[in-house]
Design a protein that fits this description.
Strand order of the largest sheet: 1-2
Helix content: 40-55%
Number of helices: 2
Radius of gyration: 18 Å
Distance between the termini: 45 Å
Shape: flat
Strand content: 5-15%
Order of helices and strands: HHEE
């Protein structure tokens, strides 16, 4: 389902409000739309990966390994 025009405008406005202070140039509404699209894409990929192999969990520090549905090992 696609967001309504008002909801979409609100999302674009909030995106500009969040990201504008973090950049040295002005953000256009098109810039904000692309940011929303890119962030959505990143989370879609992460979701896809998590569904592809739910037993392969890594916290990027190598400290948590999931071997199976009931076995979690914390490495120190």
């Amino acid at each position: 389902m696609k967001p309504s025009g008002a909801a979409n405008d609100n999302l674009i406005d909030r995106t500009i409000g969040l990201w504008q202070p973090r950049t040295q140039r002005g953000l256009s509404r098109e810039d904000a739309r692309q940011i929303v699209e890119n962030v959505t894409g990143v989370f879609a990929i992460l979701h896809e990966w998590s569904r592809a192999d739910p037993c392969a969990v890594n916290d990027n520090r190598g400290r948590l390994t999931v071997r199976g549905p009931d076995e979690v090992r914390h490495e120190r």
